[in-house]
UniProtKB/TrEMBL annotation:
Pathway in which this enzyme or protein is active: Purine metabolism; urate degradation; (S)-allantoin from urate: step 1/3
Record's subcellular location: Peroxisome
The protein's Enzyme Commission number: 1.7.3.3
Family: Belongs to the uricase family.
Pfam families per UniProt: Uricase
Presence of the UniProt keyword Oxidoreductase in the record: yes
This protein's name: Uricase
Binding site for O2: T48, N242
Reaction catalysis annotation: urate + O2 + H2O = 5-hydroxyisourate + H2O2
Role description: Catalyzes the oxidation of uric acid to 5-hydroxyisourate, which is further processed to form (S)-allantoin.
Keywords: Oxidoreductase, Peroxisome, Purine metabolism
GO BP terms: purine nucleobase catabolic process; urate catabolic process
Amino acid sequence: YGKNTIKFLRLHREGKQHFVKEVEVCAHLRLTSPQEYLEGNNSLVIPTDTIKNIVLVLAKKNGIQSLEQFAIDICNHFMTTFCQVAYVKTYVQEVPWQCLHEDGVPHVHSFICVPDGIRFCEAEQCRNGPLIVFAGIKDLKLMKTTQSGFEGFYKNEHTTLPERHDRILCGELFCKWSYGECKDFDFNCIWKKIRECILEAFAGPPDCGEYSPSYQKTVNCIQMLVLSRVSQVQVIEVVLNNTFYNVVDMKNLGLTNDKEVLVPVEAPYGSCACTLGRK
């Protein structure tokens, strides 16, 4: 049991410069006894309102250096404070506020919410067990307008999809990875590095791009690049929900439409998923 959707903004000041972290936290516990379920005995139950208050107090006292460290702080607090807690799991996601810039100079106290993917993390721990930390990015919308195709696929009497050697590749990406033994990691630096790997593997070199023969291959390229460059990542899961665009037929309007006007296919949509780990 636990408390979901604990939302708050943490404001940190260094002189005139302000820094913000707006997050949403879910914290769940499993107790050593199920007596509250079986007998209606609530003597061991930590109220969910208390769980919410603990999260807010930890944000006040410790700040949020990184989402991962904050999730670890929550796990550690419940494990070290309450002997009746057998398991704790914490999920934290961030609202993507970025500091406003003018001519390259950061504003001291103004921010803009940029929808370029939502950062999240999870931490979980059993009593006398290891601390397990996951991190990731979701709702990251990506598109490239060429250097993508889909050919040579299996065909039978139900196949109507034409082969394409040049198409738009567009999708919403979910990526989640697990760390090995958590040491003194710079979680912020690692997250930024993995995000850069995702963008590089999807797009390819800026002057020419990288050909994608399928959504599946693009998913694998992302995973392989992350595992090759970020040694702290042990397992990585990637889900790419596809958005297809159909070329509008403008012959009746007396126009030739060379893939200049397209409309998105809202549903149904395809989805490719893969989990890849080290040997």
